[in-house]
Amino acid sequence: xxxxxxxSEALADLRFWAALSLGTIVVASVGMVDDIVGIRPFxxxxxxxxxxxxxxxxxxxxxxxxxxxxx
Length: 71
Description:
There is one protein chain. The protein is mainly alpha-helical. The chain has helices at about 10-35, 40-55; strands spanning about 65, 70. It has a two-stranded antiparallel sheet with strand order 1-2. β1 (about 65) and β2 (about 70) form a beta hairpin. The longest helix is centred in the N-terminal third of the chain and has 29 residues, at about 10-35. The protein is globular.
């Protein structure tokens, strides 16, 4: 078992990409289940909220949309 020191910026990049990948997998899985068996809209909304919470928990924040600041 070897622990390799990781720079904080590299760790932040890894955390971002891991959260983005996991969020994408959650949304894609919910969509696939909906296509195959059909799920209620509230269940789809819960899945999308879970994906959003994963991204927010990783520290991601949205500063602007189409150049319009959100703060």
